[in-house]
Write a structure and sequence with these properties.
By secondary structure, this protein is α/β, with parallel strands linked by helices. It contains 13 helices and 7 strands.
């Protein structure tokens, strides 16, 4: 019997992403971010007996959502290593999907430390088998490092002031929990936009903890190599930092958005955008799932 956890996560832009992926019944596909397996299950529904799906996720909770299906191979690892696995198996994909959002389960599970709604240990690791936590960062990073991640990964206003407040607070006591962090920066929280402000700080910490920017760049760099000619890359982003990276890689093959050419003006970049503008969730979807409101879907094809 399948291990189904229906409350884990509601897949965002589900039908739009399937339409963009153009699933063929006998094709080989990659779900680079399995999460609650909503997109995974939909791809399997569209595949025939000869179809294959490879799903990646480094979160042990997410792996439990994997459907029991002979056509599915689950890899508990970061999607940044997709190329290594596909090359080892001598596989080229007809389509690759990545939904870069944090799952509802991760936000709603207090001891994961992803949400400021609970007083919990500041962990934020997608993979809890190792690596630094948000707590480690808040108590060990210097002022300049803290300011940089708040500014670059969270676009936090007055990032220098927030970094300074964190450094001064931890001189008296460590910052271990959600309440500790709130207390440390309490005087800087805007009265009419406290949640929005905290969300930016938590986003910055989560990105740093999980190395999300470097992982996304590695994934995007590998995607064209892993696709067959005519194959589709579909990526759903949730903030401007991710979206800019995805847009630039589709445009030029690198994070800067500048197309590299040889002395003859030739480029080996072999992705082209399918849509000029990203696809956004409908008003109905946003009403049904408020966490979809910032989602953007971009599609590229290998030429």
């Amino acid at each position: 019997m399948e291990n189904i956890m229906p409350a884990y996560h509601t897949p965002v832009l589900l039908e739009e992403s399937m339409e963009a992926l153009q699933v063929k019944p006998d094709g080989t596909y990659v779900d680079a971010t399995m999460g609650g397996a909503g997109h995974t299950r939909r791809i399997l529904e569209m595949l025939g007996p000869e179809g294959k799906l490879i799903a990646f996720d480094k979160d042990e909770d997410a792996v439990k959502n994997a459907p029991c299906d002979d056509r599915l191979t689950v890899v508990r690892n970061n999607f940044r290593f997709m190329e290594n696995f596909l090359e080892y198996w001598n596989i080229k994909a007809d389509g690759i999907l990545a939904d870069l959002g944090v799952s509802s389960h991760q936000f709603d599970t207090a001891d994961r430390g992803f949400s400021f709604r609970f007083d919990a240990e500041l962990d934020m690791r997608m993979n809890r088998l190792g690596g630094k936590t948000a707590r480690d960062i808040l108590n060990s990073y210097g002022y300049d490092e803290l300011k940089a991640i708040l500014e670059n990964y969270g676009e936090v206003e007055k990032s220098g002031k927030i970094a300074d407040m964190i450094c001064k607070y931890r001189e008296k006591q460590p910052i271990n929990t959600t309440d500790d962090l709130r207390d440390a920066i309490l005087n800087a929280l805007p009265a009419n936009a406290e949640h929005k402000f905290l969300a930016k700080i938590y986003q910055a910490l989560r990105i740093e903890v999980n190395g999300e920017i470097a992982a996304l760049e590695d994934f995007m760099r590998a995607s064209a190599k892993c696709l067959k000619k005519g194959g589709r890359l579909v990526v759903i982003t949730y903030h401007s930092i991710e979206d800019r990276i995805v847009k630039n890689f589709i445009k030029s093959g690198n994070a800067d958005g500048q197309l590299d050419k040889d002395i003859f003006g030739r480029s080996d970049h072999d992705l082209k955008a399918v849509n000029k503008k990203p696809i956004l969730p409908s008003e109905d979807e946003i009403r049904a799932n408020t966490r979809s409101r910032s989602a953007k879907l971009r599609t590229a094809e290998k030429i």
